[in-house]
Amino acid sequence: MKGWALFCCGLVASSHLSAATSRQELDPLVITNTREETPLSNLAGNTGLITQEEIELIRPDHVSELLNRIPGVYVHRNNGQENLVSIRSPVLTGPAAAGSFLFMEEGIPLRAAGFSNINGLSEANVEQAARVEVIRGPGSAFYGSNAMFGLVNVLSRAPSDELERNIDFSVGPHGLAGFKTTLSDSSNNQGYRLNFNAHHDGGYRDDSGYDQQKLTLRHDFQFNQTEIKTVLSAFNLNQETASFIKSKNDDEAYKDTSLSTSNTNPEAYRDWKSFRLSSSWSTKLSNGNRLTITPYLRDNEMRFLRHFVPEQSISESSHKSIGAQTAYSMELKGNHKLIFGTDLEFTRGVLEDTQTITDDEANPFGPSGTSARPQGKHYDYEVSAYTIAPYLHSEWSVAEQTRLIAGLRFEHTQYDYDNKMLDGNTKEDGTACAAATGCLYLRPSDRKDTFNNFSPKLGVVHQLNDSNSLYANLSRGFRAPQTIELYHLQNKQVEGAGDSEQIDSLEIGTKGYLNGIQYNIALYHMKRKNVFFRDGEGLNVTGGKTKHSGIEIGLSSPLSRNIDLATSISYARHKYDFSRAANGIESGNDIDTAPRHQSNIRLGWDFLSDSRAELEWIHIGKYYTDASNDHQYDGHDLVNLRVNQLVTKQLKLYGRISNLTNTKYAERADYAFGSYRFFPGERRALHIGGSLSF
Fold first, then answer.
1. Is the pLDDT of residue 594 over 60?
2. Helix (H, G, I), strand (E, B) or coil at 151
3. Quick one: DSSP state of residue 121?
4. In 3-state terms, what secondary structure has residue 335?
5. What is the pLDDT of residues 72-100, one digit of tens each?
6. How far apart are the C-alpha atoms of 425 and 441, rounded to whole Å?
7. DSSP assignments along 566-630, one per residue
8. What's the pLDDT score for residue 12?
9. Spatial distance between the Cα atoms of 487 and 643, rounded to a whole number of angstroms
């Protein structure tokens, strides 16, 4: 009922705003949907937008602080810079979660499609971005594998027209310290921008914390009818990770102050670095059409302790990619448009997984000598991946106020897998495990796997007037299996059984401005098949089906000349559409970690010129923590306060109090291996800082 109260509160409050103001806002331009600037009202679908002004107000230490403002989006923080993402979906975990969302920078995926990581958004420099665009639901014909539940695109800031120099320092609890700097300038037909930031966090839990650095270097160059944008990005993270706190019987163990700051895995860590380079060449041809070619490179390495599984193995992985995106855009007579092109990519990745603890330590389910989790190396393999994806996107004016949008993408993916160990279900030395089922791990023999997928899209947009529109959208998303799903097998799986996951989505909505209120309302229904997921016993399951339905509402409007209100509300049901008695799954059950109600309400006050305060109320409804729906988390409410004040033209001071009411809550809750497990949320904390331009 609390969720519905927030829902009604937002609607009632906004309904009283219409008489307060008649101010109209410009229709914002977004890039992600069509890879070129398009008015938001022209799109057959939805796009959530976090602006540069919001980023500078929030000054996030974690990407969740930004994305959780968008309807239908919920990001769990876990610990440190780790995150689990939900976009029109449950909060997903395991290998399948990594491939269910597409995380991008400048429209280029942060990681190769078959080598994704659910924490992937950590790599993007959201702290100094120009804006972040989020598409909820399957992507358009421009995006293929992984663009299922949603896309996140982080866009860099363009070079400044005049010399810009800025340094920024901030401090917070448990030794948190941040530094950011910007240097930018332009002359004649070129410009550059250098953004760098570094953060140190001592961790609010024992033996935790991280050091993180991000660099973005952008150079823009124009000559004749050609624009060249080159972006180099680098990222490094060294994190000491705090694991779940656990309890056999207490479903509110996260409220225990001493337990919530403890860390039962002080040895857990995550070391991660990445590098990306892209150069987009866009030329306007003599016939008025535009050709864009964007070659890119990426390099990614990660080593971490898998503290969330009983064997606590060490995973070492890396992949290197070279690729190119191409697009040819044609403006046709009658206000029609056609865009077509091909995306190409080659990736080579490696993975090693090694258990250092003993069999007995990794065996919480039985007496000594029965462990299926032996010491030593479990996996060691290399995969070469090839992708070719032609696509077509078209827009047709079928009437004066109505546009039809259609697209189709075909994507061919091939994996060439090379096992560096003994094939089969044995220990590293070839001997059998003592457990009746043998070793948990199954290493396939060398093989090639090919996946061919189509993703059609059909939409219609009807412009009611200059400020308001209706739309409907029918689309399909897919993802080829992750390489870890195909080659990091368990003993109950079958080699070669993985198939592409597919989701079909129907969405209708309306958006625009009405009597000073900016609004975006969407209703959707999605069905997913060939679902791969990790169940409550830690086993990998294939062939599942799920259903997803919901409504999302975004409203914002001024209350007076310098006070405004923004509301993001969603209600959704995410359900299993199949049964699996061994795991307690029944068709119709809620998927675990899928809150039905989510709300974010923000009251803003521009108390001085270029100075702003914001009070934010976040509501997360209750959700089940296991697939059988026998255990649940009751949800929580958080309040955050932010203040930015311009002291002089060069100096800005800012501060925030997170968790203002000092609520005891869980960032993440689940029930697995016979225990309640929580990532406890941080208590009330003060952060302050200053920004100096010179």
1. yes
2. strand
3. G
4. coil
5. 999 988 889 998 999 999 998 877 788 89
6. 6
7. EEEEEEEEEEE-S-BGGGTB-TTPBPSS--SEEEEEEEEEEEETTEEEEEEEEEE--EESSTTS-
8. 40
9. 50
The stretch 399-425 carries a mean pLDDT of 95
Q: How far apart are CA 84 and CA 196, in angstroms?
A: 25
CB of 491 within 8 A of CB of 440? yes
Chain center to CA of 318: 20
pLDDT of residue 259: 93
Task: State the DSSP H helix or E strand holding residue 260, giving kind and residue range, or none if neither.
Answer: helix 257-260
- How far is 6 from 650, CA to CA, in rounded Å? 40
Provide the token pair at 456: 């059609």
Q: Which amino acid is at 9?
A: C
Distance, in Å, from the CA atom of 25 to the CA atom of 13, rounded to the nearest integer, reads 20
Characterize 325-355 residue by residue with b for buried, 16 or more Cβ atoms within 10 angstroms of its Cβ, and e for exposed. bbbebeeeeeeebebbbebebebbbbbbbbb
Query: How far is 510 from 217, CA to CA, in rounded Å?
Result: 38
**How many residues are given for the chain?**
694
- Work out the number of other CB atoms within 10 angstroms of the CB of residue 8: 11
Secondary structure of 660-690 as H, E, C letters: CCCCCCEEEEEEECCEEEEEECCCCEEEEEE
Q: Which residues contact 53 (CB under 8 A, 6 or more apart)?
A: none
Mapping DSSP to helix (H, G, I), strand (E, B) and coil, where does residue 251 land? coil
Q: What is the mean pLDDT of the chain?
A: 90
pLDDT of residue 502: 94
Q: How far is CA 462 from CA 120, 166, 328, in A?
A: 36, 44, 26
Whole-model pTM: value is: 0.92
Phi, psi of 165 (to 5 degrees): -135, 130
Token pair for residue 517?
């209120």
Longest alpha-carbon distance in the chain? 77
Partner residues linked to 108 by β-bridges: 105
Residue in the block written with tokens 């930015």: 644
Is the CB of residue 312 less than 8 Å from the CB of residue 265? yes
Element of type H or E holding 66: helix 64-67
- In eight-state DSSP terms, residue 252 is T
What pLDDT, on the 0 to 100 scale, is given for residue 581?
79
Closest CA to 89 of 533, 489, 603: 533
Rounded to an integer, what is the distance from CA 666 to the centroid of its chain?
20
Q: Rounded to an integer, what is the distance from CA 378 to the centroid of its chain? A: 29
Q: Residue with structure tokens 């780790």? A: 82
Report d(CA 102, CA 116) in Å as an integer: 9
Mean pLDDT throughout 155-178? 96
Q: What domains are there in the chain, each with its CATH number?
A: 2-693 (2.40.170.20)
DSSP state of 204: S
Quote the CA–CA distance of 225 and 209 in Å, as a whole number.
Answer: 49
Classify residue 174 by its DSSP letter: T
Distance CA 17, CA 14 (A): 5
